[in-house]
Design brief:
The chain has five helices and eight strands; from the N terminus they run ββααββαββββαα. The chain has about 180 residues and is of the alpha+beta class. It has a single domain (about 5-160), classed as Thiol Ester Dehydrase, Chain A (Roll). A six-stranded antiparallel β-sheet has the order 3-4-6-7-8-5. A hairpin with a 2-residue loop joins β3 and β4. The chain is globular, with a radius of gyration of 21 Å.
């Protein structure tokens, strides 16, 4: 039987499975409302800028745009990692912000694999205002590849062993009994 990641069999995992499982977990992706998938063979992410995403009044916070880009680039990294039966995570990411995004606008990010080595991938991405196509940010991310067993071990740590209290009489004295 194959191993699973985020509740889905590795061998049958699609990008839609990844997005669904990540959103279902809760966490930042669902909190921010980031949605994604494949459009014409390109990994995309989408975020509608609402008041909680703003920094300056009416303007998207850079962290919201960075999160969208990291999630989108990470989606592409996962596709390539899973093909190699590996997991992945962001090592570093640089973002150039090009123009502000107004509250009420939707930002679309797209990711492109630039290089895939033995243990690292370099992925670039652009974010643009959906209605106008105007670019708002450009990102370069480095993602590592590591054995799937490492992430599975973190998700299912061994049960802690109980050790007897070496000073039971002190615990009773503190409690006043």
């Amino acid at each position: 039987m194959g191993r699973t990641y985020l509740g889905v069999m590795e061998s049958t995992m699609t990008l839609q499975d990844i997005w669904y499982q990540l959103q279902k977990q809760g966490g930042l992706i669902s909190t921010l409302g980031i949605d994604g998938g494949l459009e014409d063979g390109v990994v995309t992410g989408r975020l509608s800028i609402e008041r909680p995403h703003t920094g300056a009044p009416g303007i998207a916070h850079g962290g919201a745009i960075m999160s969208l880009l990291d999630t989108t680039l990470g989606g592409l990294a996962m596709i390539h990692a899973f093909k190699r039966q590996c997991a992945t995570s962001t090592v570093e990411m640089k973002v150039n912000f090009l123009r502000p995004v107004q509250e009420g606008q939707t930002v679309v990010a797209r990711a492109t694999l630039q290089s895939a080595g033995k243990s690292l991938m370099v992925i670039t991405g652009t974010a643009e205002i959906e209605s106008s196509g105007k670019p708002v940010a450009f990102a370069v991310g480095t993602f590592n590849l590591y054995p799937m067993d490492k992430i599975l071990a973190r998700r299912n740590p061994p049960a802690p062993t109980q050790t007897p209290d070496p000073h039971p009489s002190q615990a009773a004295a503190v409690g006043g009994t």
